[in-house]
Amino acid sequence: ISDQIFYEVYVSSEEKFRDFEFDGYTYHCIVSKCDKGVQSVEYSGGVRVTDKERTVVDSIKDMDKIAGLEEVIVNIQNISRLDEKRLLVYLECYDNQFLYQKTGFLLKPYRQQLSLSDQFFEICKEKIGLSKRYLTKDCHEGKYDGAWRLIIPLGINTLKNGV
Questions:
Q1: Among residues 50, 49, 117, 46, which one has the least CA distance to residue 88?
Q2: One digit per residue, pLDDT tens: the chain, 163 residues?
Q3: How are beta strands 133-134 and 142-145 bridged, if at all?
Q4: DSSP reduced 3-state for 149
């Protein structure tokens, strides 16, 4: 998922490979610990892709490595619906408290648009443990969100293009 053109592509792979450049793009490997949600798409030339829900979970999981908080939020805003059962399968596959925290926090403002139930967010909250964490490594000034036990950047709602 992308809102802008990037010349760096992050590839989820079960096997590690060295970064390489091809046709003006640099490809980076992110070794995946989850083999679910991968599809073979017709006319893709054999390239396998993740479904929308897995892509969202992966984007949230690796947002500090790949697109950044602003891009992840914009991408979530551009999605019309998510299958919460699939989201929970992928979250369980990674079994990471911090991922449950970030996912619950980032998806909650869009719960109606994404068709996510209150039960989805309750499950996320049950999995977050007691740790308090920064939402992103780039958070230098923040405020604490007690529901998700996260320190979030000030002005998180005005990240896109300074609006």
A1: 117
A2: 666 677 888 888 888 999 999 999 999 888 888 889 888 888 878 888 889 999 999 999 999 888 789 989 999 999 999 999 999 999 999 999 999 999 999 999 999 999 999 999 999 999 999 999 999 987 778 899 999 999 999 878 765 543 3
A3: unpaired
A4: coil
pTM equals: 0.87
Type of residue numbered 65? K
User: How many other C-beta atoms are found inside a 10 Å radius of the C-beta of residue 82?
Assistant: 21
Eight-class DSSP state of 86: H
Return the ∠ at Cα 11 (arms to 104 and 36), rounded to 5°.
55
The set of long-range contacts for 120-126, using a CB threshold of 8 Å and a minimum separation of 24, is 120/84, 120/87, 120/88, 123/88, 124/91, 124/100, 125/100
CA dihedral sign of residues 156, 125, 65, 75: negative
